[in-house]
């Protein structure tokens, strides 16, 4: 283990917090819109179905990760599929991590330039946010995990405040008629929760070998994913009950608009900045983890001793990619609803399933030599 590129270790609790923040990342802001545009007022049922499916996906990841406790996704993909096929699969995974990082960064840019500061060039927003992520990644996994522990209580308080103050605004008749879109609409809608964030959690298989107490990783992973899912369901329910499904479906960032509805007497208004803060904090961790997985994976693929030299060039490429990844916010809505779920299914479900199946059919390596191979590889 000493030969590993990443020297840091995180505990299962920190892993759980990172999973939670990752699953809230872009999800709370963009998913309610995608859900309701497909499943209409049954968007919240689609969210529940999506979270249930998401838990199964996390279970699949933890089965794969626990088969190779000392190796990251890059290392055992090569071990399972053989050298050349493994390298191709690794390169595909890396492209997915990198495109995901670019999309997450673009989400931030779009949000700030359409809602918060419309006059600011999107490149400036991206550069500032990237700078923070690069600093985080250069300090390593342990620092990212510890800072997530510091921010968690603040994020929790802000989410609770948001939910409590919106309860008086709920209009229950907005839920009817139930099951109008039928099972097909609900399943189609649930795909948007499955693809953002659950299928994207495959990124965390790069972090898996650095978590202490391997026996507790699965429950930590499931706990973080479930908590994130519950918050997404609650936010979707609030969007449907307070704004109505049609309004939610029309807006790109409905949960931000949702917070504008909060009014307590004459003194507590314009509280939507809370949602912006929750979102900036959670999406920072999502971006940091995606970018970290990309460059750690690159370093492992090319057998480098450290990922540090890759930081600056990769961040420049990422900055450019985030501008060209989709032309405008209108296109993004189609992309998030129609294209991304199937792209995510490829890397978030089919590839991990393939790896698990092949590794189950292969004879298990001997216990004493199991971790000797990756040491060789990194040297």
UniProtKB/TrEMBL annotation:
Pfam families cross-referenced by the UniProt entry: Spore_permease
Subcellular location field: Membrane
Protein name: Endospore germination permease
Alphabetical UniProt keywords: Germination, Membrane, Transmembrane, Transmembrane helix, Transport
Organism the protein comes from: Paenibacillus rhizovicinus
Chief place of localization: membrane
Gene Ontology cellular-component annotations: membrane
InterPro entries: Spore_GerAB (IPR004761)
GO biological process terms held by the UniProt record: spore germination
Similarity remark: Belongs to the amino acid-polyamine-organocation (APC) superfamily. Spore germination protein (SGP) (TC 2.A.3.9) family.
Superkingdom of the organism of origin: Bacteria
Lipid bilayer topology: Multi-pass membrane protein
Keyword Aminoacyl-tRNA synthetase tagged: no
Membrane-traversing stretches: 15-38, 44-64, 84-104, 124-144, 151-171, 191-212, 224-245, 273-298, 310-334, 340-361
Transmembrane helix is among the record's keywords: yes
